[in-house]
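Input chain follows. Return structure tokens only.
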Amino acid sequence: MSNHPATESTTTRLRDWWLRDRQTGEITLGQRPNPAILVWLVTALVRWLDVWPERSDELRWIGAGALVVWGLDELVRGANPFRRVLGALVLGWQLVRLVG
């Protein structure tokens, strides 16, 4: 990358627009897990450990539903464009998996 001041300011502005939380001004790539992500993590862990094999399908659906909720939440209320795009990608991925 060039050390030219104009390039740095453009790069900085683009990075700030893409990654800064609109309320706090902090760069936000990830946040503490919210309830939907915690539900998905628990279902994924239980399935991975094969703790409840007779409920694997139900756990998959619950986990997928949790990711749909998380994706919708990020798409609508994401802290920055990066989080909104991430939410849209996860939501799209889950909908394709659920339909397909």
